[in-house]
UniProtKB/TrEMBL annotation:
Database matches in Pfam families: MarR (PF01047)
Top-level taxonomic group: Bacteria
Signal peptide: none
Protein name: MFS transporter
Source species: Pandoraea thiooxydans
Keywords, comma-separated and alphabetical: DNA-binding, Transcription, Transcription regulation
Family annotation (InterPro entries): HTH_MarR-typ, WH-like_DNA-bd_sf, WH_DNA-bd_sf
Positions of the HTH marR-type domain: 12-144
Length: 145
């Protein structure tokens, strides 16, 4: 089913516009909440993704977080400089680089896990439980395409 008609299309009333606006608003909120830790929202996503997995490769993170590999490399360099992650070549396949959190990275991830839910809950405070579940379901459906 087509939901837009070219002759009446308004970018400011499109799903893409609202998704971008929501993402930017959430990132600004997250960046403000994380500022004192010296971490930004994209870096938080990388750290918590590795924390949840236990280990990851740059390719896996790029795919999961929808970040191009060049930006991912620069982000990993910065996180490694801060001492929050380390890279190790796979013993089975030297082409593969595995990413692990350092002890400092694990502590940082624990701090992040305390802050992130509050930021999300503030943004979602006017949603009912049913609205929240439906919103999440629809976003999953939309991003699965």
């Amino acid at each position: 089913m087509k939901h837009y008609v070219k002759s009446r299309f308004l970018i400011t009333d499109s799903i893409g516009f609202y998704i971008a606006r929501a993402r930017n608003s959430l990132q600004m909120d997250m960046d403000a909440a994380l500022k004192t830790l010296g971490v930004n929202a994209p870096q938080m996503g990388v750290l918590l993704s590795i924390a949840n997995r236990g280990t990851a490769t740059p390719f896996e993170l790029s795919k999961d977080l929808v970040i191009d590999t060049g930006l991912m490399t620069r982000m990993l360099d910065k996180l490694e400089t801060h001492g929050w992650l380390k890279r190790e070549r796979s013993l089975e396949d030297r082409r593969v680089v595995n990413l692990y959190l350092t002890e400092a990275g694990e502590r940082m991830s624990a701090e992040l896990a305390k802050i992130v839910p509050d930021v999300l809950n503030t943004r979602l405070q006017t949603f009912t439980k049913e609205e929240f579940e439906e919103f999440r379901r629809l976003l999953k459906k939309f991003t699965a395409a």
